[in-house]
Amino acid sequence: MTRKKPAIATTAIHGGEGIRYPGDPVAPPLVQSVNFVQEIGTEAGLMYNRYGNTPTLQRVQKRMALIEGAEAALVLASGMGATACAMLALLRPGDHLVASGHIYGGSKRLLEEEFTRFGIAVTLVDPFEPRVWRKALRRETRALFVETPVNPTCRVIDLRPISYLTKESGIALVVDSTFASPVNLRPIEHGADVVIHSGTKFLNGHHDAMCGVVAGTEPYIQEVLQKMVLWGQAPDPFAAWLLERGLKTLEVRVRRQNDNAMRIAAWCAGRKEISKVHYPGLTSHPDYEVARGMLDGYGGMLAIELEGGARAAERFLRRLKLFIHAASLGGVDSLVSEPRYTSHARLSAEERARAGVPDGFIRMSIGIEDADDLVADLEQALK
Ligand SMILES: *Cc1c(COP(=O)(O)O)cnc(C)c1O
């Protein structure tokens, strides 16, 4: 009998573990030490936390690779650290990168403000325009960068046509998969070469650790490792341990978040105070078909637009009791935030409206509380 590859719920708990012996701890030991005794007379076996080769880091690196279906993975100090090192390992001065314009604000600034100063050309495109990717390619193009689903509109980019193009052109497809989590999307299965996560979000899932992940081929991850070591982007062992701890419940958390978000999106769609609901699990969403074909779950992120605009939004946020007004996402607590004060604060009201994020737009990160309680909170706040 051929054994089926373990499901993600199992891999997230046991992936990469060796044989257990009597007396071994069931919970993974946190080895907080930065330095380790070295053998005399050889450089082999030198362990140092910034090198990413200490026990607590190595355990979770292996597990992340198995979860993403990648040859190797690296855990870094933050999602931004992961994005920076992933890109530095791919791009040299004179190279060109094509990136989706719908990416995390920090990633956009990193590419536009920092990378261009290193002589790396960056073209941002509207990923929902037909044939836009092919048109943007140049002889110097080395990589294509997308984020899907997209913050905060929850638009979903189809990876399949993009991956045909990158394979045909011999360039790398890099996907920031933070919003989906590996439970809902494993980009390598859809032709991606590199997967990036802000581990601070769904992977940790408890709002209490900052880290990032890059997954890809073994030789590529060795390149990313060199960047991580020299740019000082390794995580603290405790953050890596909290990531591993979070991974153990990843599957149940995300499934619950998917269910809660679907329930809330459907409820919001029937309210007259709400003019628009952005959730890829609703058949009214422009990318419903893409999402249905590519995702295993529609995710814990959604957004609503209030009929009463900016003033209604402020009143609504002040009345919420369970939902916490805070940036970030993906954890067990439900959060709400307004892009006009976070990701889109640098734009004018007109520019925000044109970007599909008018005032009155509220982003929700749905947690794992009881769905009825969450709906009741929304209902009392809308009154
Ligand atoms: C939060 C986030 C990042 C940055 O991650 P940090 O852990 O905050 O550095 C990158 N991409 C996406 C999609 C994010 O949501």
Report Rg. 21 Å
CATH class of the largest domain: Alpha Beta
CATH superfamily of the largest domain: Type I PLP-dependent aspartate aminotransferase-like (Major domain)
Q: What is the SS-derived class? A: alpha/beta
Write the SSE topology:
Elements: H1 8-14, H2 55-68, E1 72-76, H3 79-88, E2 96-100, H4 105-114, E3 121-125, H5 132-136, E4 141-147, H6 159-169, E5 172-176, H7 181-184, E6 194-198, E7 212-216, H8 218-231, H9 237-247, H10 250-269, E8 274-278, H11 288-294, E9 301-306, H12 309-319, E10 324-325, E11 335-337, H13 349-354, E12 361-365, H14 371-382
Parallel strand pairs: 2-3, 2-4, 4-5, 5-6, 10-11
Antiparallel strand pairs: 1-7, 6-7, 8-9, 9-12, 11-12
Helix pairs in contact: 1-2, 2-9, 3-8, 12-14
The protein binds pyridoxal-5'-phosphate.
